[in-house]
Specification:
The complex is a heterodimer of chains A (288) and B (127). Chain A has 288 residues and is α+β, with helices and mostly antiparallel strands. Helix content of chain A is 30%, strand content 13%. Chain A has one domain: Cathepsin B, Chain A (Alpha-Beta Complex), CATH 3.90.70. Chain B is of the alpha+beta class and 127 residues long. In chain B, 43% of the residues are buried. Chain A binds chain B through residues 42-45, 55, 58-59, 61-64, 97-102, 118, 153, 201-204, 206-207, 223-224, 276-277, 279-284, 288, and chain B through 40, 44-49, 51-52, 54-55, 57-58, 60-62, 67-72, 74-79, 83-86.
């Protein structure tokens, strides 16, 4: 049984997703922001609700949830970077799904050896947030961070599971960070390393799906995609659906797995997105 | 004697051909028969990735120690091109019809298996 304290946990004050920014995150606005990367919900991914529980059990057995493709936590505390931490979970899961490795989900203060063995690349939420909100505090909406990621990509973090010899990287967050995330001082866009665009464009979302109903959002999660949503002052990446309690599980950007109830999820799917594919390298051992 | 010799030569030629299921191939050179990489190629608008495919690809990575991956038909690298590592596999998969598992060795396609229907079938598609 899941601890009720972990369900529908919302910050007392927004941590990067205030109501005025949330109001701009309509499905149409997100679709416009993504341009050519925008995709309709594919009919091939539709599942009738009566089949959801069976599909969930199948995913449990196969390790095919989006959560399985996420190999680390990030920690934004006390910044306002939440939409970018949700974005990075979505992007990394899409990339790791393509790489075909089930990590089993993030664990606090733990680094998978497989992250090194199978070439996981950790992307910097700050590399997007620094452009989305140059003032540092106040947050950024989903539309803005998605537009930036699709247009010019994300930079890798300075902390990686393997030494990839990236020519350009910055810290992952101006917040706490952790074992698997570089925390450090704020980096403004003007202080990014020269030529950073060359590396960032190797890590771009290529196809982004926008669900048009709660049911479509659940279907995306059931097919192993991560659905990023913003609600109640905080943005999170749904990565698993739990049938008996009808909960959405997500790796929160505070080193912990939390859950949204169906009631919250039904109010939150608008302005959500799922990255279906990322740019992939010519050689997995040399990602950029 | 001459007939036996001809049969042996013919057998060697057949063994040298890549095993391709479900599509034609023009590759005729001698190539390895043990895969070093495998990719499941799919088009998301037409097919969901079955959970058993995800499970099998993970097993191929971990148990067989090969580079086993999933490729959406429209995927590019950062320059907007088909990633070099997938060019031949994508071409072979498209010829066979998507979805398909393409097994590779030494940069060559050695087997293409359209639409494997179980986890075991995915594993068997990669020699």
């Amino acid at each position: 049984m899941i601890d009720p304290a972990l369900i529908d946990h919302f910050p007392s004050e927004h941590d990067g997703y205030p109501a005025e920014l949330a109001a701009e995150d309509t499905t149409d606005a997100l679709r416009d922001a993504c341009g050519d990367a925008s995709r309709e919900f594919p009919k091939s991914l539709w599942l009738e609700p009566r089949d959801w529980a069976a599909k969930a059990r199948e995913n449990d057995a196969a390790g095919s949830w989006g959560m399985n493709f996420i190999d680390r936590f990030t920690n934004q505390n006390p910044t306002h970077e939440c939409t970018c931490h949700s974005l990075r979970a979505n992007a990394e899961a899409a990339r790791n799904r393509a790489r075909g490795v089930n990590y089993g989900g993030p664990k606090k203060d733990f680094r998978y050896q497989e992250s090194k063995d199978f070439g996981s690349v950790w992307l910097s939420p700050l590399s997007v947030y620094a452009e989305a909100n140059p003032r540092k505090w106040g947050g950024a909406n989903v539309r803005a961070v998605l537009e930036i990621a699709v247009r010019r990509g994300m930079l890798p973090e300075t902390v990686q599971p393997r030494d990839y010899q990236f020519r350009h990287a910055i810290v992952g967050t101006s917040g706490k960070g952790g074992l698997n995330q570089a925390g450090g001082p704020w980096v403004s866009l003007s202080r990014f390393p020269d030529g950073w665009e060359e590396t960032a464009r190797q890590f771009r979302p290529l196809e982004v799906i926008f669900p048009e109903s709660y049911e479509q959002a659940v279907c995306l999660v059931l097919h192993g995609l991560v659905v990023s949503v913003g609600r109640n002052g905080h943005a999170v990446p749904w990565a698993r659906w739990i049938p008996d309690q009808r909960l959405m599980a997500y790796p929160d950007s505070y080193d912990i797995i939390r859950y949204d109830s169906e009631r919250t999820a039904r109010s939150a799917w608008k302005g959500s997105f799922a990255i279906a594919s990322m740019t992939l390298p010519d050689d997995w051992s040399k990602p950029a | 004697m001459r007939t036996a010799f001809a049969l042996i030569v013919a057998g060697l030629v057949v063994l040298a051909l890549p095993r391709v299921e479900g599509c034609r191939t023009t590759t005729t050179q001698q190539i390895a028969t043990t895969a070093t990489a495998a990719v499941y190629v799919y088009e998301k608008d037409d097919h969901a990735i079955p959970a058993y495919v995800t499970a099998a690809i993970n097993r191929l990575n971990r148990e067989r120690k090969i580079v086993a991956t999933l490729l959406e038909d429209d995927t590019t690298n950062g320059d907007g091109e088909v990633p070099t590592q997938y060019r031949l596999a994508l071409e072979a998969a498209r010829k066979a019809g998507l979805p398909a598992v393409v097994a590779m060795a030494g940069g060559q396609v050695i087997r293409v298996t359209p639409a494997p229907a179980s986890e075991a079938a995915v594993m068997e598609a990669v020699p």
